[in-house]
């Protein structure tokens, strides 16, 4: 899996702070944007604590994602407040061997892993045979498995990213989309550390919200995913 933050709204924390100030200020935009970084940090923390997430919708982040499975991308596109451009299996003919995704659970079962690999190799050979016989790629693709790799570009605003991280960084999420979400969270924290200081599964912000479905490892999750203390706002 490869995850790259391609671009984001310039000075995202500065913009979010200015938008938050505007709601309660008689000042013009120029003066709101000129406020110092320390004040922006204080205001962003207050906004996040109060749940005033609408101001986060003004900034967006675009990612390139490669070598995730179709099983993962099907889960990803359920997050509808986002934009996706995905490699097409209709217009792209995969004539070379596909680097199919292998679930970690198979690594400890070598006999099943061998059967898994052979089955997918047979499927790919059938796919290539169909193409060679003149079957259109849009029809030959019907035999391709959920393990087939895909690549896409996606854009989410910061509010939707918070929601995405809350669900998909949780241990209850499927392993592949959780790995994707964690990689995206790390990239977002590098670009806008204060905006994403509290982003992640619900147990980072308090008791686990999953009730009877709690994984029982909240402290371990906090150790794994908690942001560094007191990140500065980016000016």
UniProtKB/TrEMBL annotation:
Cofactor: FAD
Catalytic activity from the UniProt record: dUMP + (6R)-5,10-methylene-5,6,7,8-tetrahydrofolate + NADPH + H(+) = dTMP + (6S)-5,6,7,8-tetrahydrofolate + NADP(+)
UniProt enzyme class: transferase
Pfam families named in the record: Thy1
Cofactor note: Binds 4 FAD per tetramer. Each FAD binding site is formed by three monomers.
Location of the active site: 168 (involved in ionization of n3 of dump, leading to its activation)
Pathway the protein takes part in: Pyrimidine metabolism; dTTP biosynthesis
Molecular functions (GO terms): flavin adenine dinucleotide binding; NADPH binding; thymidylate synthase (FAD) activity; thymidylate synthase activity
GO BP annotation list: dTMP biosynthetic process; dTTP biosynthetic process; methylation
Keyword terms, alphabetized: FAD, Flavoprotein, Methyltransferase, NADP, Nucleotide biosynthesis, Transferase
Residue sites binding dUMP per the record: 75-78, 86-90, 141, 168
Annotated residues for binding of FAD: 54, 78-80, 86, 157-159, 163
UniProt-listed Enzyme Commission number(s): 2.1.1.148
Entry-linked NCBIfam families: thyX (TIGR02170)
Task performed by this protein: Catalyzes the reductive methylation of 2'-deoxyuridine-5'-monophosphate (dUMP) to 2'-deoxythymidine-5'-monophosphate (dTMP) while utilizing 5,10-methylenetetrahydrofolate (mTHF) as the methyl donor, and NADPH and FADH(2) as the reductant.
Subunit-structure text: Homotetramer.
Similarity section: Belongs to the thymidylate synthase ThyX family.
Protein name stated in the entry: Flavin-dependent thymidylate synthase
Gene it is expressed from: thyX
């Amino acid at each position: 899996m490869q995850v790259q933050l391609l671009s984001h709204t310039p000075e995202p924390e500065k913009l979010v702070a200015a938008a938050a100030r505007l709601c309660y200020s008689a000042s013009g935009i120029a003066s709101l944007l000129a406020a110092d970084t320390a004040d922006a940090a204080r205001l962003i923390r207050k906004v996040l604590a109060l749940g005033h997430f609408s101001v986060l919708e003004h900034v967006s982040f675009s990612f390139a994602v490669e070598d995730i499975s179709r099983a993962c991308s099907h889960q990803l596109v359920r997050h509808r407040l986002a934009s996706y451009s995905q490699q097409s299996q209709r217009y792209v003919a995969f004539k070379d061997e596909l680097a199919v995704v292998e679930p970690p659970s198979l690594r400890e079962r070598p006999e099943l892993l061998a059967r898994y690999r052979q089955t997918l190799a047979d499927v790919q050979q059938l796919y290539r045979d169909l193409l060679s016989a003149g079957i259109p790629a849009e029809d030959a693709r019907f035999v391709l498995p959920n393990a087939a790799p895909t690549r896409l570009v996606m854009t989410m605003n910061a509010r939707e990213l918070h929601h995405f991280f809350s669900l998909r960084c949780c241990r209850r999420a499927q392993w592949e989309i959780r790995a994707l979400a964690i990689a995206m969270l790390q990239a977002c924290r590098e670009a806008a550390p204060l905006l994403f200081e509290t982003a992640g599964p619900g147990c980072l912000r308090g008791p686990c919200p999953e009730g009877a479905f709690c994984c029982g490892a909240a402290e371990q999750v906090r150790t794994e995913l908690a942001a560094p203390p007191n990140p500065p706002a980016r000016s």
